[in-house]
């Protein structure tokens, strides 16, 4: 799917703010990669200031890479996700980088959960459905030879 198409926009009601909503669009693969890169770069900078020895930094970088592979929200740069994903909202102020920075944590957490691909795929994997399992529901696996 092309992520920049108007029909791809979804409205999310904010349950903690009656009447408030945010519209988001899917994040493209490149934008997700950018969010991961930004988070890793920031993490490496923080770690580099704390790690005095090279081998410690390598271990911490491997840990950051492993965190990204698990699909945890903290593996992505939140500001990048919000900047690419939020397209409209019910607030009177326009959606800008500055106003995105003014959102409360509860709203940000809700939006990020909607934007990350794992928010939809994780339940499918747990239920044994979806493309990540390699099997179609209700179909027998064909025997292989050799």
List keywords for this structure.
146 residues; mainly alpha; 3-stranded antiparallel beta sheet; 6 helices; 8% strand
Beta content comes to 5-15%
Number of strands: 3
In this structure, how is the largest beta sheet organized? 3 strands, antiparallel
Number of helices: 6
Describe the secondary-structure layout.
Elements: E1 10-13, E2 21-24, H1 29-50, H2 54-70, H3 78-85, E3 86-89, H4 97-101, H5 105-115, H6 118-127
Antiparallel strand pairs: 1-2, 2-3
Briefly summarize what is shown.
This protein has 6 helices and 3 strands. The protein has helices at 29-50, 54-70, 78-85, 97-101, 105-115, 118-127, and strands spanning 10-13, 21-24, 86-89.
Give your account of this protein's structure.
The protein is mainly alpha-helical and 146 residues long. It has one domain (6-128). The protein contains 6 helices and 3 strands; from the N terminus they run E-E-H-H-H-E-H-H-H. The protein has helices spanning 29-50, 54-70, 78-85, 97-101, 105-115, 118-127; strands spanning 10-13, 21-24, 86-89. Strands 1-2-3 form a 3-stranded antiparallel beta sheet. Helix 1 (29-50) runs antiparallel to helix 2 and helix 1 runs antiparallel to helix 3 (78-85). The protein is elongated and about 50 Å long.
């Amino acid at each position: 799917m092309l992520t920049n198409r108007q029909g791809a926009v979804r409205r999310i009601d904010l349950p903690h703010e009656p009447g408030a909503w945010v519209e988001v669009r899917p994040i493209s693969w490149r934008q997700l990669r950018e969010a991961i890169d930004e988070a890793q770069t920031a993490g490496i900078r923080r770690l580099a200031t704390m790690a005095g020895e090279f081998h410690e930094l390598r271990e911490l970088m491997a840990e950051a890479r492993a965190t990204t592979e698990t699909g945890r929200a903290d593996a992505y740069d939140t500001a990048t996700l919000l900047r690419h994903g939020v397209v409209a909202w019910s607030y009177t102020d326009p959606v800008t980088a500055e106003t995105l920075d003014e959102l409360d944590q509860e709203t940000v957490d809700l939006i990020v959960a909607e934007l990350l691909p794992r928010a939809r795929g994780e339940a499918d994997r747990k239920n044994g459905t979806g493309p990540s399992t390699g099997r179609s529901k209700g179909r027998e696996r064909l025997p292989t030879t050799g």
